[in-house]
């Protein structure tokens, strides 16, 4: 059984927009999800050029993957978000959209947000990589 998940923001570190600097998990089972991408069940890219549509699909895919191992967004202990963009406004918008999505609680944990020039599929704008501490 996985022990409690503790999220910490030390007072010596800067304030965050919702995530925690440190996540501690007692020994237990861990799931490492492959990067969740904006492909539908048929393998087709959803929302070419539409970041919000792609975020909705990525969130739905991530939720399905978490549910497949008996977990939910609240069990996520680490996230890495990749967004194709050239500037901070797009990154901020992606962060806000993901936080208000069906997997929003996943981003209260240790999290990294990166702007990149390209992802694996032509037209892909976002990808989310999650690690979860599985419940008992």
Automatic annotation (TrEMBL):
Enzymatic class: hydrolase
Molecular function terms, GO-annotated: hydrolase activity
Entry's family note: Belongs to the RutC family.
Source organism: Streptomyces lusitanus
Keywords associated with the record: Hydrolase
EC code: 3.5.-.-
Pfam families: Ribonuc_L-PSP
Taxonomic lineage from the root: Bacteria, Bacillati, Actinomycetota, Actinomycetes, Kitasatosporales
UniProt name for this protein: RidA family protein
